[in-house]
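User: I'll paste a sequence; please echo it back and then give the predicted structure.

Assistant: Echoing your sequence first, then the prediction.
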Amino acid sequence: MTKLLTSMRDAAIAASVLSAAMLPAAPAFAQDPSLMSCEELWYARNEIYARNGFCFKTARAQSAFGPGCFPPFGKLTGADARSVSALQSWEKRRKCPG
């Protein structure tokens, strides 16, 4: 009986984790980009690309996000595209290194 309860509990936990993974992604940046450092802007922008399967080539990005590479391979639409555009705009304003 204990083994059955443990299996049921493990199944419930797995279902809960799977359900959470299927929720819409949270915005890439929670704070106002105008208040973010160059490092924070870079990370927030690349987190969006990572979530969308971008194939990272730089050691910096691969160490932060892994190699990526899954469909849609970094193609952005909707809110993600707008977020990246806003982050890039702030990176340009701050003269962040490329």
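Residues 2-21 form the longest helix (20 residues). The chain has four helices and no strands.
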